[in-house]
User: Fold these one by one.
Assistant:
Number 1:
Amino acid sequence: MSPLLLLIIIIGALVFYVISIYNSFQTIAVRIQEAWSQIDVQLKRRIDLIPNIVETVKGYAKHEKEVFENVTKARSALMSAQGPKQVGEADTALTGALKSLFAIAEAYPELKAQEGFLNLQKELSDTEDKVAYSRQFYNSVVKEFNQKIMVFPTNIIAGFFKFTAKEFFEATETEREAVKVNFQ
């Protein structure tokens, strides 16, 4: 085998290797976009359920104006949030506001027994589970991408094509706090 042919084969193999690594980065980047889109879909579903829940509770607890305003503000903040960090913070604020709303609902047995309210509560709970799964999937794909950027030899190709690490969807300080259970 001639040295020229051997050189062409080696260069061809290197080019093929670089192209395959570049394509794997692009594939993971698309998966990250898809995973973020799933989080967005579930959060929008959650946002759409909230006005129905608020209106249902309002019918029973007309004097709880501040709680309704907090839920509405938190919902608006989530709708306008951008990026994993802002969305995570807005999602935490909305979760806290909803906890207050459901605490009010606990004080009204006839509301808790209403079928429409129970259905809305179940839908919201299902959506919460889907949001949690979507966040987990997003973070798994981001981990895979970020890991490829940091390990040799793919880090060389990532640097050459200017791939940068993606941001995780992280729990906020409020979400990390231990739940306090008080039986009084």
Note: The longest helix spans residues 3-58.
Number 2:
Amino acid sequence: MGFFAVSSAKEKLLRDRMEALGLHEEDIDESFIRSSGKGGQHVNKTSTCVYLRHIPTGIEVKCQKERSQTMNRYHARVLLLNKLDDLVRGRESEERKRIEKLKRQKRKRSKRAKEKMLADKHMTGMKKKLRSRIPSDEA
């Protein structure tokens, strides 16, 4: 088993990405905090929340996604890499592309596009209505 509680392929991917961005373990200040939220006594007893600080840039990340500290350590590093990637690459970063795509998807349709879509729906409804057979009064 590796350093984190994830598959060796995921860990290798993380290490490669860290290397590509020039992020070294020595540059990361890692500390553990008690998580908050649901979990009852377990949360109050264990420090599963991971806090990372990238010393050269001052970027800070806190992760309490999972109940396991090792999983949170992995997720925190992924978050830190996303933030660093955004800082280094700017508009070309994967995270920025994902956010831009979501914004485009959520953007309100123009009035013309909405009218066209509704007209198409109306036409489809009419076709379906015409398909149904009208019962005849032969009996």
Note: The longest strand covers residues 28-33.
Number 3:
Amino acid sequence: MIPYGRQHITEEDISAVTEALKSDFLTQGPKIAEFEKAFAEYIGSKYAVAVSNGTAALHLCALALNVNEQTRVITSPITFAASANCVRYCGGEVHFADIDPKTYLLDLNKVRALLEKHPKGYFHGIIPVDFAGNAVNMEAYRKLADEFGCWIIEDACHAPGGFFTGSDSKKYFCGDSNFADLAIFSFHPVKHIACGEGGMITTNNEVLYKKLILLRTHGITKDPGLMHKNDGGWYYEMQDLGYNYRLTDFQAALGISQLLRADAGLIRRREIAQTYFDAFKTNTKIKGQSGVVEGHAYHLYIIETEKRKELYDHLRSKDIFCQVHYIPVHTLPYYQALGWKQGDVTNAEKYYSSCLSLPMYPTLSNEEQQFVIDCINDFLNA
């Protein structure tokens, strides 16, 4: 079987987890801080907060930014539902702007048009998504957000190690928080760094960082400098309504081990992307991505074809398990019940009708990839 994504667990990973399991801490131990420090250094942010999964990371970001029933937030419809759901968890209102059909990213011009349709202050936040690993130009979004008084959460779940080049010709890595207020990552098994489950929030804002730390653990602190009183070494205070969104030490140990070969994984992903591009660039029945994009982290490699359903079924018959990313969020029954309908976000809907994510993971062999390519070309050219 060839899946669209697969974790890569090495003997070093297993040894790291085993060592953590034999230690004095299974949770709330030293591996958490070690992972946070290593991840922040890798991404280039000042702070990192490890949490139980990417959805928890989004929820905590929304809480830290005081999202409530009066809050209106813009995001992409081509993303996993959690990018929008985090706003709904806090009672906020989600608005979907369309994607750029060339990059599949949230279209900056569409976001501007939506912002300009309403008085300044009507919208409070923007959640751009580094979809498939393609880095959003966060510098441009920061300028737009500042113009309209919005905060930014960057959903970088697909893109650790991805980057864009700023107006100063410097590389800015996804989630480095030079432009976003907060950024989030996922450590689901098919992601670049696998912890089974897990997530990370990055920020350069110390106030938000301290709030996230509090909210991650029930809103409870044991820090004497923050407590209103101190009855003794056992004493703690619940100062806010938080959640149990902690990561375990053995998951953090796995994350630390995986992080050590993250760059090697990126190199391999980009090699796979180049091979796909070269194989399909002359096939008129496939709309592929326009070359290998600099800074793209290639969590996914996506093609478009008018025979998507037929090709999907054919590949499954060959034990090639491709996937579709994503069903536009505004067309899901929950959001349709809130008033969204088919036809509201046309580029996203057109993309969904033809998109297919091909196998993309560092341990995909050249022979396996060639088999995928041959099956696709043979079917579409028949």
Note: The first helix runs from residue 11 to 21.
Number 4:
Amino acid sequence: MSKVEEKLAELGLTLPPVAAPVAAYVPALRSGEFVFTSGQLPMVGGKLPSTGKVGAEVTPEEAKQLAQTCALNALAAIKSVIGDLDHIERVVKVVGFVASAADFTGQPGVINGASELLGQVLGEAGVHARSAVGVAVLPLDAPVEIELQVRVKAGA
């Protein structure tokens, strides 16, 4: 078990299986020293635990937890490409999309669910640049979607 997965276990979390794509794409792709994930929905066992807009059907607190689930799914996708999460040198960028009610402006707080998890399990390597974007709707009516870009250690 990698140190990253040990840290997840300390937090009471486990790395899920890689979420199956819902369209024509791969969950993650390596290009040189970088791995890019496709947008990861908060799938748990092949299903969305919640649907709808944040600030309407989904509370900001629920959405923050869903963002954490998205980050776990992204880490699983990255592991499927590089084999060991300890090969992550740095999370370079996190892009978070929040399906938002018309008056909801708390997208940064929602995406903190992903950012805080990455910091907890990767330490300094989890500190990243980020965008948190409000959108009208996401695939399958998901409340949140996360994509990651990470740099892999040389020789890994």
Note: The longest helix spans residues 60-82.
